[in-house]
Specification:
One of its GO terms (molecular function) is aldose 1-epimerase activity. It holds the Pfam family Aldose_epim. InterPro entries: Aldose_1/G6P_1-epimerase (IPR008183), Gal_mutarotase_sf_dom (IPR011013), Galactose_mutarotase-like (IPR047215), GH-type_carb-bd (IPR014718). One of its GO terms (biological process) is galactose catabolic process via UDP-galactose, Leloir pathway. This is Galactose-1-epimerase. By secondary structure, the protein is mainly β. The chain has a single domain, classed as Beta-galactosidase, Chain A, domain 5, CATH 2.70.98. Helices cover 3% and strands 42% of the residues. The chain is built from two helices and 29 strands. A nine-stranded antiparallel sheet has the order 11-12-13-14-29-24-23-18-21. Strands 1-2-3-4-5 form a five-stranded antiparallel sheet, with no helix packed on it. A five-stranded antiparallel sheet has the order 20-19-22-25-27, with no helix packed on it. A hairpin with a 2-residue loop joins strand 8 and strand 9. The longest helix has 6 residues. The two termini are 18 Å apart.
């Protein structure tokens, strides 16, 4: 096991660094302290995730690749959190909704500390997000850990504590490719999800859970991702692909994504995985010009977005610890 890091720049008075974790099998994981970002996963020297050309590119244009997105990843309807008689307003930054925490945690430079022993190589990253930043209440201390073991499993965790009543629902926004160059349509996917959440024109859930049976969203048996993306399904057509929460049934693993040569097995204690298939990539953007539609697929492990304004499920009491765990086993 080995850890190392390399400074590649400066931002906001802090050093920007690329941290490398290497196991005894030669698998290498690269993490940026910009955004607590998962930059690369190299298995037999092949990158398993969607990455930009250089570490320095990540802070130039927000694109969410591998970032720890928060305080809330995903959308909040009209940016409103209603609790008791109070209505708390968050910034509106996508149509009529709030998305991805405003200028969120994936755009901050985190402190970090690498370490390793005979069993794992890891990096711990911490961020202090002050009261009122992006109009979120509470001083929030966030701790993210990436830990690589000799089973070729990368463990990712988020822990956080606030000193005030607040809302928190972060996610790692890594896009998996399993080394596929153009798109992920020919990858195979299986999920332990019997229900999904249909969404409205703005991407917000609007009618509760629906069974995946008989729909394009049925991955209870392994099938090609492209079969869903090419389906004549109004939900797929409206979003240009998948951009939907899948409600996990409690059986592990949550998801298995496979190619002819590789596989990633996703386990999590989150109640849902939000699947986004890179519908918006269109060979534009200075740093994402190489990415076309369906260039990668996410498994965003979190509490699914709320239909309305009651965000009780993602509310943290003062001093209450938030915990989220995800693991990605590569083969």
């Amino acid at each position: 096991m080995k850890t190392s890091f390399n400074k590649y720049g400066r931002k906001d008075g802090k050093d920007l660094c690329e941290i490398s974790l290497k196991n005894d099998n030669g698998m290498v994981v690269k993490v940026l302290n910009y955004g607590a970002t998962l930059e690369k996963v190299l298995l037999n020297d092949k990158n398993m995730i969607l990455s930009l050309n250089s570490p320095a590119d990540y802070s130039q244009e927000r694109n969410y690749l591998g970032g720890t997105v928060g305080r809330i990843a995903g959308r909040v309807r009209k940016g409103q959190w209603r609790h008791g008689l109070e209505i708390h307003q968050l910034p509106i930054n996508e149509g009529e909704n709030h998305i991805h925490g405003g200028i969120g945690t994936d755009t901050e430079v985190w402190d970090f500390e690498p370490s390793c022993d005979e069993n794992s190589a890891r990096v711990d990253l911490t961020l202090f997000d002050p009261d009122g930043h992006n109009d979120y209440p509470g001083n929030l201390k966030i701790h993210v850990k990436y830990e690589l073991d000799n089973d070729d499993t990368l463990h990712y965790s988020i822990n956080a504590v606030s000193d005030q009543l607040t809302i928190f629902n972060p996610v790692n926004h890594v896009y998996f490719t399993l080394g596929e160059k153009d798109n992920i349509k020919d990858l195979k996917l299986k999920m332990n999800a019997d229900y999904y959440l249909p969404v409205d024109h703005s991407g917000m859930p609007d009618r509760g859970m629906e069974e995946v049976a008989g729909t394009a969203f049925d991955f209870r048996k392994t099938k090609r991702v492209g079969d869903a993306l090419e389906a004549d399904d109004p939900q797929i057509k409206d979003r240009g692909g998948m951009d939907h929460p899948f409600i996990l049934n409690g059986n592990q693993p949550g998801a298995v994504l496979s190619s002819a040569d590789h596989k990633v097995i996703v386990n999590t204690d989150a109640p849902s995985l939000i699947i986004y298939t890179g519908n918006g990539f269109d060979h534009t953007g200075k740093y994402t010009a190489d990415f076309g539609q369906y260039a990668g697929i996410t498994f965003e492990a979190q509490i699914p977005p709320a239909e309305g304004y009651d965000l009780g499920r993602i509310t943290l009491l003062p001093g209450e610890e938030f915990k989220r765990n995800v693991s990605w086993k590569f083969e």
